[in-house]
Amino acid sequence: MILSIKEVLERNLIRGRDFADGEGLVEPEGAAIDIRLGEIWQMQPASEAFLGKTTRKTREYIKVAEFVGGQSDWFVLEPNMYYQFKAVEEMAVPADAVARFVARFNLLSCGILILGYKADPGYIGQFVVPVVNLSGVPFKIELGARFAQFEFHRIDGESVQYRGQWQGGRVFTEKEEVQV
Fold first, then answer.
1. pLDDT tens digits for range 28-68
2. Which fold is adopted by the domain 5-173?
3. Are 83 and 77 in contact (CB under 8 A)?
4. How many Cα atoms within 13 Å fall on the side-chain side of residue 34?
5. 154 touches 98 (CB < 8 A)
6. Alpha carbon of 4 to those of 98, 105, 119, 122: distances in Å?
7. Alpha carbon separation from 56 to 50, 109, 135, 164, 169 (Å, rounded)
8. What are the pLDDT digits (tens) for 92-106?
9. Rounded CA gap, 64 and 11, in Å?
10. Whole-prediction pTM value?
11. Rounded mean pLDDT, 79-104
């Protein structure tokens, strides 16, 4: 069962939202909460990466844009480039729920592929998602724009809390690490 927007707001599962700040937020509707674009990180393709049975290392990224409240800044997503978007808002997924990421259709219809996934019970922090411009042409996006939504689904029964190393909104591993 999907939690109602009223319950998500009452339980403060999405933090850092101010509907009066003039940054394009609207009162939520439907069954999901919008999240805004806070940072853009660009992959450094020449960096080393691997995934082993017990260890891993991701590619490196550099931050190329950051949302500043009250400003209207734009960024151009270059064709066939791989980015990570970090949300402005922070989420706190309770033990009785899982959060499901849903990309906004207007980006998908423009050839911008957002590779969403879930946030497990116990995850706290900003959400980071991979993004690729598959359109073949540059695409402009305004920092602070609503780019995705989260639905919170109630878990029937006991859950296991997230204990992974991505807690808090980390974008990449800085060195080889043992996987939890």
1. 677 888 889 999 999 998 899 999 999 999 999 999 999 99
2. Deoxyuridine 5'-Triphosphate Nucleotidohydrolase; Chain A (2.70.40)
3. yes
4. 20
5. no
6. 13, 21, 17, 19
7. 6, 34, 31, 13, 18
8. 999 999 999 888 899
9. 33
10. 0.89
11. 93
